[in-house]
Write a structure and sequence with these properties.
This protein is α+β, with helices and mostly antiparallel strands and 369 residues long. The chain has 8 helices and 17 strands. The two termini are 39 Å apart. Bound molecules: ligand EPS.
Length: 369
């Protein structure tokens, strides 16, 4: 089972949704990063359940204990071990479906592979696991910002068929949807209230960008930055698609339209999403991630049980009607972990090369939209 992300900044997560705790060990963390338990609070709260009526009602404190790797307020280079105790698991919610497979859920494939599973809260396949990705990324975000001035931001770019009508980064953190158009928030609240009452769920799209990434990060052939980002995002629960730059829209474009003209004053556009040949160009890194609708619904569906009998599956308990709503900080975290790993790998092999050509400014491709 693969529980580790990264080659040089290696994050291993452990724990189940209804086990005593979840945690992670970060190996390869550079020394000297200032770190206190309070540093995790803001990002973990952005991802957490129970903070608005539009997400699962489970209420966890998500209080991080630093068990290793920090001395006198800074990382030492030793493994950083982080632990969060689970305090609000309600395992009886899962009694009814412990011997059934939820259609659209990993229950079935997990059972076929391992012949056993922890059905409480989805066990290891629960979105609870993403808490530790966000926690580990706090360190990566800090280092990337301090050493390279990299800034990673995300927002919800679609819920069902609703698209933002305008874009304002300042609005994103002011509403429970990470939505960039404050004027649309009442419409989204009504949409989500109706959806929740109907018992159904819906998909979503998250956009995540990184500004300030220098040219040169990412390795050609098998270690490409865009390939790493795709794998990072695809490892998040419920992700069904990832686009870099224009992504699938590139299919209908002409080469003369897609290529990003270069001038000494800057790039003219950013269709590439900041990556060429798997290596960063110095432009904004643009990534868009598709989340499927949550599969745990109280609406009945045809299913089978462990013995292959036909059953009607009904899932009760506390579930997200749109798991994509909480996914913005998770996508930011995976972007940070991938960039951190690529930065260290670049430094390891090419740290002595320096910048051999004049840097092309991000230019029009970096408009703050
Ligand atoms: C989840 C189902 C729910 C969510 C959980 C993810 O679990 P439970 O039934 O135990 O409340 O609350 O999300 C979290 C606990 C979290 O911290 O993200 C699932 O099926 O993935």
């Amino acid at each position: 089972m693969s529980n580790t992300f990264g080659q040089l900044f290696r994050v291993t997560t452990f724990g189940e949704s209804h086990g005593p705790a979840i945690g992670c060990v970060i190996d390869g963390c550079p020394p000297g990063i200032a770190l206190a338990e309070g540093d995790f609070t803001a990002d973990l709260a952005r991802r957490a359940t129970g903070r608005s009526r539009h997400t699962s009602a489970r209420r966890e404190d998500d209080a991080v204990e630093i068990l290793s790797g920090v001395y006198e307020g800074a990382t030492t280079g030793a493994p950083v071990a982080l632990l969060i105790r689970n305090t609000d698991a309600r395992s009886r919610d899962y009694d009814r479906i412990a011997r059934q497979f939820r259609p659209g859920h990993a229950d079935y494939t997990w059972w076929q592979k391992y012949g056993t599973r922890d059905p409480r809260g989805g066990g290891r396949s629960s979105a609870r696991e993403t808490t530790m990705r966000v926690a580990a990324a706090v360190l990566a975000k800090k280092w990337l910002a301090q050493r390279h001035g990299v800034r990673i931001r995300g927002h919800l770019a679609q819920i069902g068929d609703v698209l933002p009508r305008s874009h304002d980064w300042d609005a994103v953190e002011q509403n429970p949807f990470f939505w960039p158009d404050a004027g649309q928030v009442p419409e989204l609240e009504a949409y989500m209230d109706a959806l929740r009452k109907s018992g159904d769920s819906v998909g979503a799209r998250v956009r995540v960008v990184a500004d300030g990434v220098p040219p040169g990060w990412g390795e050609p052939v098998y270690g490409k930055l865009d390939a790493g980002l795709a794998a990072a995002m695809m490892s998040i629960n419920a992700v069904k698609g990832v686009e870099i730059g224009d992504g699938f829209a590139s299919v209908a474009q002409k080469g003369s339209e897609h290529r990003d003209a270069m001038t000494p004053d800057g790039f003219r556009s950013n269709h590439a999403g900041g990556v060429l040949g798997g290596i960063s160009t110095g432009q904004r890194i643009e990534c868009s991630v598709a989340f499927k609708p949550t599969s745990s619904l109280r609406l009945p569906v045809e299913g089978v049980d462990l013995d292959g009998n036909a059953v009607e599956v009904v899932t009760t308990g506390r579930h997200d009607p749109c798991v994509g709503i909480r996914a913005t900080p998770i996508c930011e975290a995976m972007m940070a972990l991938e960039l951190m790993d690529q930065a260290l790998r670049h430094r390891a092999q090419c740290g002595d090369v320096g910048e051999v050509a004049p840097r092309i400014p991000a230019g029009e491709g970096a408009a703050d939209g």
